[in-house]
Specification:
Elements lengths: L1 H19 L4 H10 L10 H12 L6 E3 L5 E3 L4 E2 L28 H12 L8 H6 L16
Antiparallel strand pairs: 1-2, 2-3
């Protein structure tokens, strides 16, 4: 009986942690708007929302291991090879931050790093899933029902 109670407690804690890392679409839209991403490098707010959705399903704490031994971190799935230091694989660390910072509910490090990526060659085309699911598609519906101010 005690093991069953312990198991339920552990599973409940995991569910709470998991649910807590998903950010609401409109909340994310407001944060991105406040950080001046609407129109940044020619990408509208719906492009940023689509990027966050196709990469992480709005999961701030998502970590994905890649076949080459690198990892993608956070809401924008920023790769450890070039952009952040995960202390597991070689990194150029162009964003000058620990990859763990990209998993923080404070999205400012993720936003600043994403801005750096988008400012370089390729823009949002650096994200394969954005190219496949967002590029060239109507995206205005991503802001439906959201009040930005």
């Amino acid at each position: 009986m005690m093991m069953r109670v312990l198991f339920i407690c552990v599973v409940s804690c995991l569910l709470v942690v998991n649910d807590g890392s998903i950010i609401n679409r409109c909340t994310l839209a407001r944060i991105l708007y406040q950080e001046d991403l609407d129109g940044f490098e020619g990408y509208s707010l719906p492009h940023w929302l689509c990027l966050a959705f196709v990469e992480s399903k709005f999961n701030i704490s998502k970590v994905t291991e890649n076949a080459d031994g690198t990892f993608d971190y956070g809401i924008f799935q920023i790769n450890s090879r070039y952009w952040c230091n995960d202390y597991q694989s070689h990194s150029e660390n162009f964003c000058r931050l620990d990859c763990e910072e990209l998993l923080n509910p404070n999205l400012i490090p993720s936003i600043h790093c994403a801005k750096m990526i988008v400012s370089g060659s390729g823009g949002m085309k650096n994200w394969v899933d954005w190219r496949l699911h967002c590029l060239g598609r109507p995206l205005s519906y991503w802001l439906t029902g959201c009040r930005l101010v």
